[in-house]
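Ticket #4471: complex job returned nothing on first submit. Input attached below:
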Amino acid sequence: MNVRPIRVTVWNEYVCERTYEEVRAVYPEGIHAALAQVIRDQLGANAAVRTATLDQPEHGLPEEVLEATDVLIWWAHAAHDRIADAIADRVQQRVLRGMGLIALHSAPGAKVLQRLLGTTCAVRWREDGERELVWTVNPSPPIAAGLPHPLIIPKQEMYGEFFDIPEPEELVFISSYTGGEVFRSDCCFTRGRGRIFYFSPGHESYPVYYQPEIQRVLANATHWAANGGAVRRTLYMPENSAMGWFEP
Amino acid sequence: MNVRPIRVTVWNEYVCERTYEEVRAVYPEGIHAALAQVIRDQLGANAAVRTATLDQPEHGLPEEVLEATDVLIWWAHAAHDRIADAIADRVQQRVLRGMGLIALHSAPGAKVLQRLLGTTCAVRWREDGERELVWTVNPSPPIAAGLPHPLIIPKQEMYGEFFDIPEPEELVFISSYTGGEVFRSDCCFTRGRGRIFYFSPGHESYPVYYQPEIQRVLANATHWAANGGAVRRTLYMPENSAMGWFEP
Amino acid sequence: MNVRPIRVTVWNEYVCERTYEEVRAVYPEGIHAALAQVIRDQLGANAAVRTATLDQPEHGLPEEVLEATDVLIWWAHAAHDRIADAIADRVQQRVLRGMGLIALHSAPGAKVLQRLLGTTCAVRWREDGERELVWTVNPSPPIAAGLPHPLIIPKQEMYGEFFDIPEPEELVFISSYTGGEVFRSDCCFTRGRGRIFYFSPGHESYPVYYQPEIQRVLANATHWAANGGAVRRTLYMPENSAMGWFEP
Amino acid sequence: MNVRPIRVTVWNEYVCERTYEEVRAVYPEGIHAALAQVIRDQLGANAAVRTATLDQPEHGLPEEVLEATDVLIWWAHAAHDRIADAIADRVQQRVLRGMGLIALHSAPGAKVLQRLLGTTCAVRWREDGERELVWTVNPSPPIAAGLPHPLIIPKQEMYGEFFDIPEPEELVFISSYTGGEVFRSDCCFTRGRGRIFYFSPGHESYPVYYQPEIQRVLANATHWAANGGAVRRTLYMPENSAMGWFEP
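Support reply: We reran it on our side without changes. The output follows.
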């Protein structure tokens, strides 16, 4: 279906890996490097991957990079407030014009996701190294393809309900944790011409992104969010339409 | 809103209570009697409650009873196969004409629910007296009103995903169990003019229906399923409509 | 159900009525005055209604007014850009904390709606005095209660698809127009603790809000958006929760 | 993605074409032959197409045919009552085990669709050769790919709301007609492991299936309903699961 590779940009705030030794021990080159490698390994010639980080000019997301991005993967945790409003607006607009967005883990705190969804995205949370079981409650969509039921993550930060998001268009996974909480651990949304996939597993101190099952979800999600290979698309605009404008 | 009481019929197969002493110990008059008392206590003068059981003529559900029922509460577990097809069809038709249906616990095995939903309604299950935590993932609908988060059920049968139902129109509760499984423990559906509420908590050997929080859910669901007080309503029928039939 | 009246604030930019004689001829006291009268007539003692307009200090929406508002009705058309960002943010936050919002007609251009929904809300449009037929495609929700099928509006501005909004949680009405276009003419959303009802009928030059059927929709929507009578509610916030925090 | 061609069976009651000359004039070999040709033309080597009709033994749908079918296209209009219950049950079960179903035009009267959806599927209708405009209200899914907006059908039977179906999981098209009625002209459902696509355009007396845009919808829908190429799949079954059954 895709005549050219899916152009993926992995964005990472890249803060914790440079601050904490135990994070660096898990992701020595940064989470963005690990995620980029996942997409390269999983999609091979079907993806062209680059990375971008917070401390680059324009956070590594100038117009020309976003224009050349079909799917943006977003990882942030500690520095949500350091994102410039203009860059958050730019990413929102680009999603509305057709770029896919895969928002990972702590993304509920990100301006980008909050602007696209309109809510606080608040979650309940706890860092206690609990086991997370990810159950598939909708096996039909491509995002669920090839996954064990349940998918077991040995150690994870707990994210629990209530999760203050709009009702997702499609709910594929529900997680439970050692402590008994549950979480809608993935959520699919369409906004404008763009598709948004939120996926909660993946923490800076646990090697979650090295699990093959998690890598499969990321690959499935990249295909889904690319939605057939994005040509450059325009923003929807109000349009004054004369009577019978559609007549042949 | 309701000019007259909601007419509630509680239906129970009434088998286990007469077979097993430990069930009788929990529900000495039958689960239907206990459920009827719950609705009477919770809704008071706003409800008129009767009961019906499997071994009555026409399973206690002759036409005139169903016609005079605004909300039917269904409890069955061991004798799904003993329901006559004609009665299952009749209940389905009555729901399509506007009767609410509250399908409890083992109802996924019931012909009535399977006909209305079209799927197997298969569930994963285990009887091990586990604790169930019922989490509210959608606090807005009236069904969620007045409930603790989580609602704790000390001992329950486990019902786990995948639950083979159509995607619910509204998902209010998700449960987790000691064993780690999760379940969409309530599901709201509209079929024809009728509203259907499935709610999994409630087992014949555990005193779940005596918990005040569970009673609150049943009361909320009765109001929701009654949908403003059912007048007698007709089935939707194909309708040949002349051009301009709606002109004043 | 409501122990006290629903506190309704009708907000209007109040521009066209003071600019164009033909608008003033339809709504001599302003659209806000007409809408306020509708709610008073329809809800009687069950509503306490006030109005606010763009040119008042803080656009008539200081904190204390919004705090004392259960349902905000929003009418704007020509002056969306004149709303201060701080006021738009304030309204968004108040909706997330539980205030209902009824967004009428040209509201897709309003910052308030765009922030809550995250999309452009772009529509196709044409001012040609066409007849609009409003068809009920979901008769079950209270919003559809008591309406003719179709509801006929003799003259209206055309709003046509594609309408760039998130998929609505509930779609009750679909409109067609003389020119052949269709429109999802109402859309129900929940955002945070608040409920949002968008309803397209209602133009400054046509006497749409004087139609009894339209007034019925506004009454139904006010009850729905009030959602049981709003107590003052807090914003959802991220919450660090110790293992077992919910144990009795 | 598909390692082998999608196996498509086109089923037609094949009654009107043999009864009425004006129908035969449009579809001289039967609607099934025309539809089969559409799929062959559109999918080429990616589809293996066969046909089946009502008057064949077991209506042309013995177990081995259904087992070897990934997508079943269903056309029926005048002879819904002549389908044997056992065959309707068999088709339902096969859909629940993963076969896609594309239900065309008059399929709301078909036992197969009614069993899978649980409702009457009643529609308003009129045969008056009106123009139908098919508007895309959700441009994101693959089913909408490559279509004009609106898609214009010069002459069609009118199908109007209210359409008594469960709320569709995804609504892509809404039609309007010369007479002013509207219709949710496609509806996507998942039931068990199977996907169901209902599409109203297509009448025995009008050459709708010869329109390239309609053929594109049928091709898109075949890919969607095949859902990745169906391996033989099992029915979901209740499953007693020991504590920790999923432990490695």
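Helices of chain C lie at 16-19, 21-26, 31-43, 63-67, 85-96, 111-117, 212-226. Closing as resolved unless it happens again.
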